[in-house]
Amino acid sequence: MAAATATAAAKGNGGGSGRAGAGDASGTRKKKGPGPLATAYLVIYNVVMTAGWLVIAVGLVRAYLAKGSYHSLYYSIEKPLKFFQTGALLEVLHCAIGIVPSSVVLTSFQVMSRVFLIWAVTHSVKEVQTEDSVLLFVIAWTITEIIRYSFYTFSLLNHLPYLIKWARYTLFIVLYPMGVSGELLTIYAALPFVRQAGLYSISLPNKYNFSFDYYAFLILIMISYIPIFPQLYFHMIHQRRKVLSHTEEHKKFE
Question: Which domain of life is it from (predicted)?
């Protein structure tokens, strides 16, 4: 799940062009983009997803203004959050059929990790839905996805404003640690309830002679953040320098 929050700068899929600004740095070598029909579909997909995450952002603001508190805001955006985050599964299909030049495996991992957190943790363990940590990752995801899907939309239209490119390769500096912190704290808050209820766990003996401890599985997921987070974070720092420095050089020549 640590990888999922890295979408602000590391993800070249999501139904977008897959260019991620790399086309600027390729010199005379340009990658062949999707055909006209695929491009039209991807533009529509990204516009819809941008609008969906904007609905989530507006819902959060409206709920905060109405309640005067940031506690338990999850309930105000629960349905659109589940719908649009689950809708990101289409990104795996985009890669699989070749209209987006990204790794199916990497995209599946990135998308499924978020879907897992939404459904297998936050939805399944009702007690954590009031935790402030949920709001932490929801805000980080919301800002990230508005920027990301906007980036893809404008890239497909060959009219990418510098501000959006800058935001995509800069705001992750804060949003990535913020999202990861929210994810880890939410999983941690779910642990005692998972253990008490034996949620999704399978005990022996049974006819399949198989056991599964969901509590231990969640702990392993938390531990996996330790090697993954620094690698992705510093990779994105490197990407930021590469993309934005090239953009500045390009502007000088213009």
Answer: Eukaryota
Which domain, by its residues, includes 196? 35-202+211-248
- How far apart (Å, rounded) are the C-alpha atoms in residues 181 and 177? 6
Q: In whole angstroms, what is the distance from residue 234 CA to residue 33 CA?
A: 28
- Domain assignment present for residue 235? The answer is yes
Answer yes or no: are the C-beta atoms of 108 and 93 closer than 8 Å: no
Residue 20 has pLDDT above 80, yes or no: no
Could you tell me the two tokens for 245? Answer: 């420095």
The set of catalytic residues is 176, 183
CB-count exposure of residue 227 (10 Å: 0-12, 13-18, 19+): exposed
Residue 28 belongs to some domain of the structure: no
Beta bridge partner(s), residue 212: 202
What value does the mean pLDDT take over residues 140-154?
A: 98
Residues 116 and 1: beta-carbon distance below 8 Å:
yes
pTM of the model: 0.88
Residue 194 belongs to some domain of the structure: yes
CB 95 within 8 A of CB 102: yes
What mean pLDDT comes out for the span 215-223?
A: 98
Contact 113, 4 (CB under 8 A): yes
Rounded to whole angstroms, the Cα distance separating 199 from 201 reads 5
What's the pLDDT at 114? Answer: 97
Looking up tokens 């490197």, which residue turns up? 238
120 within some domain: yes
How many Å apart are CA 90 and CA 96, to the nearest integer?
10
